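Retro notes, item 3 of 5
We never archived the inputs for the adenosine-5'-diphosphate complex last cycle. Fixing that now. Sequence and ligand:
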Amino acid sequence: MKKIALFPGSFDPLTNGHMDTIRRGTHVFDEVVVAISTNTSKKSLFTGEERISLAKQVLGDNPKVKVVPHNGGLTVEMAKELGATALLRGVRNVKDFEYEESIAMMNRLQAAELETVLLLASPEYRFISSSLIKEVAMFGGDISQLVPKVIEDAMKEKYAK
Ligand code: ADP
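Structure as it came back at the time:
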């Protein structure tokens, strides 16, 4: 049976840190489904549709990765519908761990058989966050080493407006 992991997130925007987690996830699972939330409470730079389109452009070549909109409801329900056996998330530091732990415990209460797999961020990506990248890009800083080229260009265009 194909082992599928669901990687939910806001990805506003997708960073090289997310890319690393997705790539490493495909070494553990047969397929990683990236589910992009479109109704996030966080104020987003890119609309849901833009984030999905950008992620598809960046990840579309990888046959082991699928990009879909989040169903807007419970992530565990979405996992069930997809036949996913695990939720994939990334952890950069203790703060991430505490946050991820509480989400994982809550999800376990909803669906005990669904495992949360946390991948430790690679050292070179530990300091990358979507929010910091947005701050730097807003002031015209260099983000070329932090995000894929397609994302860099889209951010430049966004902030030029
Ligand atoms: P959310 O709004 O759900 O936290 P994000 O897009 O901010 O969504 O992050 C999605 C997941 O990716 C989270 O598990 C987060 O901890 C992880 N993540 C974010 N940045 C990195 C990074 N640089 N390296 C590894 N994992 C990361």
